[in-house]
Specification:
Length: about 80
Amino acid sequence: MGKKCQLTGKKANNAFAVSHSHRRTKKLQEANLQWKRVWWPQEKRWVKLRLSTKAIKTLEKKGLAAFAKEAGINLNQV
């Protein structure tokens, strides 16, 4: 599994680190990913997902089933 949020699809971004002298070097801006165990009430079990912190906040608002359906993932395979 790569470094990618399982619900939102967020991943790393290529960018430049710009010094004071304006010399630019390439850097990678990684997404803030966390392993999170989420309770899935429909199946009465825990699901372990790799989520961005933004997805965790949205998950608390929408709920797991609605967010997974919107993202198009099958929670039975996770």
